[in-house]
Amino acid sequence: MDCIFCKIVKGEIPCFKVYENDKVLAFADINPINPGHTLIIPKAHAENLYEISDEDLTAVALASKLVIQGIKDALDPIGVACLQLNGKGANQVVMHYHLHLIPRGKDDPELPVSGWELKPGDMKAIEETAKKISSVIKQ
Ligand code: 5GP
Ligand code: ZN
Q1: I need a surface site. Which of 19, 43, 59, 87 has the fewest CB within 10 A?
Q2: Domain-located, residue 8
Q3: Which residues contact 41 (CB under 8 A, 6 or more apart)?
Q4: What spacing in Å lies between the alpha carbon of 7 and ligand 1's midpoint?
Q5: Is residue 120 part of a domain?
Q6: What are phi and psi of 133, to 5 degrees?
Q7: Interatomic CA distance for residues 90 and 48, integer angstroms
Q8: Is the pTM of this model over 0.70?
Q9: Residue 98: how many other CB atoms lie within 10 Å
């Protein structure tokens, strides 16, 4: 499979490694939004949240706690945005699950995805959509 992040896991493409364990790898994004922009991926290929196993998702979440603390201690950002995109329609470009950790500085412009205007919604429509989703969730 021609997956750039699988190649990074196999060492066929280099990366600046930040953290690694048997299930996950964290490395520097080469197009950083800010210094310290880090990606955490499962070593096993899964496209996105639809596909990733519970075990690997848990491993990514636990690694994110270690890495965010490292970013805080090393860079002292005012905040860190954790961002994860699912599907090309949501602008996912690399189709191997990855969680972005994006340190934020004091004078940074708002991230487009985190700076939306809060407009009160239609409560009826919100309720109906929530019900529509909850009624099809399989536990
Ligand atoms: P997304 O799929 O969430 O839009 O973002 C993919 C991210 O992967 C981008 O931020 C991009 O800079 C990063 N990326 C793409 N190719 C490489 C690569 O070869 N090495 C590294 N370190 N990051 C990459
Ligand atoms: Zn892959």
Answers
A1: 87
A2: yes
A3: 5, 8, 9, 24, 25, 26, 27, 60, 96, 97, 98, 99
A4: 13
A5: no
A6: -70, -50
A7: 11
A8: yes
A9: 23
The verdict on residue 50 lying in a domain is yes
What CATH number is given to the structural domain containing 101? 3.30.428.10
Indicate if ligand 1 lies below 6 Å from the C-beta of 4: yes
Range of the domain at 50: 4-108
For residue 5, give Cα distances in angstroms to 22, 60, 113.
Answer: 16, 15, 24
Q: Which ligand is nearest to the CA of 31?
A: 1
Ligand 1 pocket residue status of 31, Cβ below 6 Å: yes
Report the distance separating Cα 3 and Cα 31, nearest Å.
18
* H or E element in which residue 130 lies: helix 123-134
Total domains in the chain come to 1
**Is ligand 1 within 6 A of the CB of residue 75?**
no
Give per-residue pLDDT as tens, 57-89: 999 999 999 999 999 999 999 999 999 999 999
The ligand minimizing its distance to the Cα of 27 is 1
Terminal C-alpha separation, the chain: 31
